[in-house]
Amino acid sequence: LPQTMKAFDETSKPIAEVKIGSQRFNGTWVPDLGTFTKVDAEYRDVTANSLTPGEFTATVASLTSTMNLTPNSDGTWSGPYGFGGSGIKLAFNKGSAADVSIGSMAANSSYDKIDLKARKKMQDTVAETLKKSQTSPTTPDQAGEMMTSVMGQLGGYLDGMGSDIELKDVAVVMKSAAPAQPNAPATTPDFSATLAKLGFVFDVKGMLQPKGSTTVKIHLDGLNVNESDPGVKGMIPTQTSFEVFVENLPMRDLGSSISS
User: What confidence tier does 250 reach under pLDDT thresholds 50, 70, 90?
Assistant: First the structure.
């Protein structure tokens, strides 16, 4: 990637600048599938700043991405994908101010018999519809056809995909907006919270079958909020887990309903 990049709004006005200190990237590109099947990448000392001074800043010490998909005999692909980051700091100052820091984050997915051809077809369908919409408005029938096509192909891409996301050492500080006049009282109280660990697990199976299942798990540990009211603070859990498992989901019927 370029060492320096700019982000633009819908009017092509530059609104932010992104800089990368150092980087490396190795990958295997498969033209027929329009995607990488192997990736080993790292970006260090990444910064992003709003071109409006002080409005937004972000720094990331390190970002990593890895993927290693191998083909199966039936034409599908399987393998792991990982994305991680460390030393993440965000600062917002528009109206009110907020600072967010994340010590580390890791997202790991396992793909089991993913249909990359269906993924490519889905991308082509969306791109073709958007291209046509630039010269003539998309009719409801055309939008419906695109959605039906996307939903039909999305199942082949998501089937067998599981993801595990974990954030560690999270801190959030929200500051009151600057008073309109000197010595005027702040209208919004300060807020801060720290979290030792936040985890999220998602798994779906049977997208292409009449019946399927899905699992969602959320876990947090070491939550601390600067709430001054003892009664309210006593109701805030410092550690909790939440899990939902649903089986015998009518996947095909759900897909048809969403498409229609």
Answer: confident
Amino acid 200 reads: F
Q: Is the Cβ–Cβ distance between 67 and 33 less than 8 Å? A: no
Pair 38, 25: CB distance under 8 Å: no
Query: Could you tell me if 84 and 107 are in contact, meaning their C-beta atoms sit under 8 angstroms apart?
Result: yes
Q: How far apart are CA 86 and CA 16, in angstroms?
A: 22
Decide if 10 contacts 27 (C-beta within 8 A). Answer: no
pLDDT tens per residue, range 33-86: 989 999 999 999 999 999 887 788 999 999 999 999 999 999 888 999 999 999
0.85 exceeded by pTM: no
